[in-house]
């Protein structure tokens, strides 16, 4: 189901709990005893000074895996909101089609490449959007990333940023200049070095990581960059995903955030018998991608 309420641009439910089944469920209802479960929440809203939201987010579940994506349309370019919606629409069309051969990483790379071409063609090289997409499967999380949205992992008491920011501030930090962390208002944070839609050929960062029970992932747009690691950790430790998603955005605003803000929070745990989400990605087949108009 899609939603566009109070400035939200979301495909998929706001929250849910999905089993990452490694094998088919047996007739008696018992599934893979070693399967993990992901509990999630996602939220997006326009910045306090923005008339509309150029971010778009989506969640798609099928065949024991769940895909999460965030696209942040670039302000200052033509139709940032259209660019982010176009990227997610193409991504879901490719991912939701009949499974293609190859590993999840190859499938994901192919889907992002097609999303890039969709944005490029729709905007005649004038539209831009970032895109970070993570697929959580039975045993692995696989991510493809372009731009300055982020994937964070809280594991064993440590918070790590798994993706690199593709912006001028991050590039400057590589050469020993002040980093984006040291200068949170650095205008270089708003100057992307990579984005969908600017060229038909795209460099995509990818990663794969083995899941562990207790993992807590945060996938977010750069609107949450004002938050410190300590703030994020406190929220993840003390709150369930739905409350954590709301609090991350609230605290980002209180910390001076003015951009559009999107966040997806995913907690991985061992299964609890009988508590499997009935929601499925098939529910999205009749939905419309945000930005394309509501039903």
Q: What do you see in this structure?
A:
The structure is a single chain. With 295 residues, the protein is α+β, with helices and mostly antiparallel strands. Helices cover 23% and strands 28% of the residues. It contains 5 helices and 13 strands. The strands form 2 sheets. It has a 7-stranded mixed sheet with strand order 1-2-5-6-7-8-11, with helices on one face. Strands 3-4-13-12-9-10 form a 6-stranded antiparallel sheet, covered by helices on one side. Helix 4 packs antiparallel against helix 5 (241-254).
- Radius of gyration over C-alpha positions, nearest whole angstrom: 18 Å
Low-confidence runs: 1-8, 23-29, 171-177, 273-295
- Fraction of helical residues: 10-25%
Strand content: 25-35%
List the helices and strands and how they pair.
Blueprint: E1 2-3, E2 10-11, E3 15-20, E4 36-45, E5 55-62, E6 65-73, H1 80-96, H2 104-123, E7 129-136, E8 140-146, E9 150-155, E10 158-161, H3 168-174, E11 205-210, E12 216-220, H4 229-238, H5 241-254, E13 261-269
Parallel strand pairs: 2-5
Antiparallel strand pairs: 1-2, 3-4, 4-13, 5-6, 6-7, 7-8, 8-11, 9-10, 9-12, 12-13
